[in-house]
Design a protein that fits this description.
8-stranded parallel beta barrel, alpha/beta, two-stranded antiparallel ribbon, 14 strands, single chain, 16% strand, 10 helices
């Protein structure tokens, strides 16, 4: 029987176990350069016992930023700074993928340089507010991307992937979930286009397919993962019947020999086994456990064949040595009893190397 603690080959990288540290936004890249810091190197190195670390969302271009102080991978300075992080993780024996996240319409002009404004597949305003340095602000109507701008955005993803490899990352994960740009092209309430980038199932999946294909061509499919979240309503997304669109997407991507598919499962869990069956490669599952954090019970998803790897989020924040604790049955620090904004771990006295 395969267990979570068995090694697995992910593309060209052999992982020590099948536990994934899920991507989690931290907003710690302070300063105008949007560069990672030494603190971020410490944070990721502390969690290098994960089979695979997926970083916080990293914008592939300046206009892709949607939150304060999130890091980029589009300048030489950012590449040099990320090398500090990847070197720290590799010294501890870990593997790390960069999550490339273009937030699309989710953001605000005050977060962007040079008069830029958020963009999207269509000029549809998201309901809600985003946090900025001046406090919460209402979302604005995004600029609808032109054909030329769409193609430039695809190229931006590919360039950022090349930068990730130059920075020492083992690969990249493309964020196609949680209501960000790739997801906005997939969802009917955010993509009102009638050209070749919308309108039909083939049109709505086209942006995701072209981004994944361009990145795979740039760095090799075995270094590329894709994260999806069918039916997830986060960031004002509406997908009442996601089955057709996502099964079509997986069918188009199946031949690229990607490193993995990462499913952020929603309450409609009936779709999960269908996606698992349709995907020919490694299947990473971030199971739906809301309102609780994913716990030890999720290890059984590997044992029963529901997934090849399982992703943990909040529990990895609270327990940097989570694989050891899962293997021994605990004890576990409770993520609900800690202050996590910005990764403040000072409450955990049983892990003395933690820094805030």
């Amino acid at each position: 029987m395969t267990t979570a603690f068995d090694p697995i080959a992910l593309g060209g990288t052999r992982l020590a176990n099948r536990l994934v540290m899920a991507p989690m936004t931290r907003s710690r890249a302070h300063g105008p350069g949007a560069e990672p810091t030494e603190l971020m190197a410490t944070y990721y190195a502390q969690r290098a016992a994960a089979g695979l670390i997926v970083t916080e969302g990293i914008q592939p271009s300046p206009v892709g930023q949607g939150y304060p102080d999130t890091p980029g991978l589009h300048t030489p300075g950012q590449v040099r700074a990320w090398r500090t992080v990847t070197d720290a993780v590799h010294r501890e024996g870990g593997a790390i993928f960069a999550q490339l996240m273009h937030t699309g319409r989710i953001g605000h002009p005050s977060l962007l340089p040079d008069g830029l404004v958020p963009v999207g597949p269509s000029a549809v305003t998201a309901e809600g507010r985003v946090f900025t340095h001046e406090g919460p602000k209402e979302f604005v109507t995004p600029k609808e991307l032109s054909e030329a701008e769409i193609r430039q955005t695809v190229a931006d993803f590919a360039d950022a992937a090349r930068n990730a490899v130059a920075a020492g990352f083992d690969g990249v994960e493309l964020h196609g979930a949680n209501g960000y740009l790739i997801h906005q092209f997939l969802a009917p309430n955010t993509n009102h286009r009638t050209d070749g980038w919308g309108g039909t199932t083939e049109g709505r999946i086209r942006f995701a397919v072209e981004v994944v294909t361009a990145v795979a061509e740039a760095i090799g499919g075995d270094r590329v993962g894709l994260r999806i979240s069918p039916g997830n309503q986060f960031n004002d997304i509406s997908e009442d019947a996601p089955d057709e669109i996502y099964l079509a997407l997986l069918d188009r991507l199946a031949g690229l020999d990607l490193a993995y598919l990462h499913l952020m499962e929603g309450p409609n869990r009936d779709l999960t086994p269908r996606l698992r069956k349709s995907w020919p490669g490694t299947f990473v599952l971030n199971p739906f456990t809301y309102p609780d954090a994913t716990g030890p019970d999720a290890l059984g998803l590997i044992e029963d064949g529901s997934a090849d790897m399982v992703a943990y989020g909040a529990l990895f924040l609270a327990n940097p040595d989570l694989p050891r604790r899962l293997a021994s049955g605990g004890p576990f620090n409770d993520p609900d009893k800690a202050t996590f904004y910005g990764g403040d771990h000072r409450g955990y006295t049983d892990y003395p190397t933690l820094t805030a």
